Each structure stands twice: as structure tokens, then as C-alpha cells.
């Protein structure tokens, strides 16, 4: 794993965005795997800035997101679909039909997992997957204990994850108990992975990722089995490394 140390959140966002922009310019029809959460927001703002200033085009880009809450419709303000539209897609020239997220309101979740996994296969390869990391080492919504062989599946969210994400909701009771997420094997199929981390709340997780054992108790450790992973993290997130 390559580590890029940045001064702060802004610097992390700019460096990650620049890496992505360079690749998009080289390969304008690439497939990007995208993430939600607070961490990638700055990267998305930088991509929008660059699109407006330098005209980087997303007309031929396909995106596929890691996960979605179960029980929220795409128009729900707390859904990841809403997050992606408002934080990124609505501000680019990307075609709506080329942006993919699991449907958390699907009637049959088993079929939805199959549909999504098939989509990942049909899109051939995710060229570049962007990831954040949960404090307990989750990637996407793959909580501790998830098999490294997992494909798109339904998960029960850990109480700590619901608490950590409660800040986006009015009440903790409103945070869904389940989500649909790409599996760890689906994530590892990506050609290249960038993991972002910012702030002291992520320092323990980053320390464990770098120095800890590779096992299913700590989902992000699966990334050590991948040949092309870059961690872009700020001083605070790297303070224990
Ligand atoms: C959620 C998302 C993850 C994300 C994590 C960290 O649980 N499903 O993809 O990496 O939160 O979020 P944040 O960046 O807000 O700390």
C-alpha cells in the first residue's frame, strides 16, 4: 500500500481529486467506484471546481457506488442516492443513467443484490474505487466479521456505525438498521483503490490498517491483498503511524 500524507482535509481532497482528474483525462470513458460519508465531500467539491474551470468531461464516465441504506427511497434526503446527486452528479455533465447505486427501496433485496452484482460484472472493471473507512475498519458497509469473499449483500449495521452516521439524521432511531453494500470481493476486483482518511477519529483505524493483521475482524485489512491501493490521509489520521 502506498501512503500519501497530506497536511489537512483540504490538502487530502485536492491531492485525491487531482489523481482522479488526471486519470479521467487519460481515460474519459472510465468506470469510477464512488463512496459516501463526510470524507469524500471535499474531493467531490474539487471535481466540480475542475469541471467548471477546466471543462473535464464526465459524459462518457460510468459510476457505481458502494452502498445504500435499506428502507430509504432514492428521493429521501438521507439516502446515498440523494447525497451523490446533490454533492456531485447534479453539478457535472454526467448522464444520470450512467450513475449507479443500489436501490434501498427495492421490493426484493435478494434480487437487488443479484442485479447490482451483475451490473458490476457487466461494467467489466471498476477502474478506480474511492473508499472511506469506518472507525471499526468497515469499508462500504462491510462490518467486522464480513467474509473477504463476500459479494453484494444485505448487512445489519453495527450499533457504532449507526451512532457515527446519526449526525446526518434528526434522531438516531431514524438511522436504518440495514444496508445493501458491495462485498469485499467486489471491492477488491477494482483495478485501483484510493482510501481516504481525515481527522483523529480515524487514527486508530489507520494504525490498525497499516500495522495490524490481515483478517476478517478488520474489513479494511483486505486491502492489503490488493496490488494497487493508495491511502491518502491527513496528519491527524496518520498521527499514530
Ligand atoms: C459510512 C459509509 C462508508 C464510509 C464511512 C465513513 O458508513 N457507508 O462508505 O466510509 O461511513 O464515513 P465518514 O467519511 O463520514 O467518516
UniProtKB/TrEMBL annotation:
One GO MF term attached to the UniProt entry: glucosamine-6-phosphate deaminase activity
Class of the enzyme per the UniProt entry, highest EC level: hydrolase
UniProt-listed Gene3D superfamilies: 3.40.50.1360
Signal peptide residues on this chain, from the entry's feature table: none
Active site annotation, chain numbering: 67 (proton acceptor), 136 (for ring-opening step), 138 (proton acceptor), 143 (for ring-opening step)
Gene Ontology BP, a term: glucosamine catabolic process
InterPro entries according to UniProt: Glc/Gal-6P_isomerase, Glucosamine6P_isomerase, NagB/RpiA_transferase-like
This enzyme's EC code(s): 3.5.99.6
UniProt keywords, alphabetically: Carbohydrate metabolism, Hydrolase
NCBIfam families: nagB
Family designation: Belongs to the glucosamine/galactosamine-6-phosphate isomerase family. NagB subfamily.
Function: Catalyzes the reversible isomerization-deamination of glucosamine 6-phosphate (GlcN6P) to form fructose 6-phosphate (Fru6P) and ammonium ion.
Protein name, as recorded: Glucosamine-6-phosphate deaminase
Organism: Sporosarcina globispora
Taxonomic lineage of the native organism: Bacteria, Bacillati, Bacillota, Bacilli, Bacillales
Protein's gene: nagB
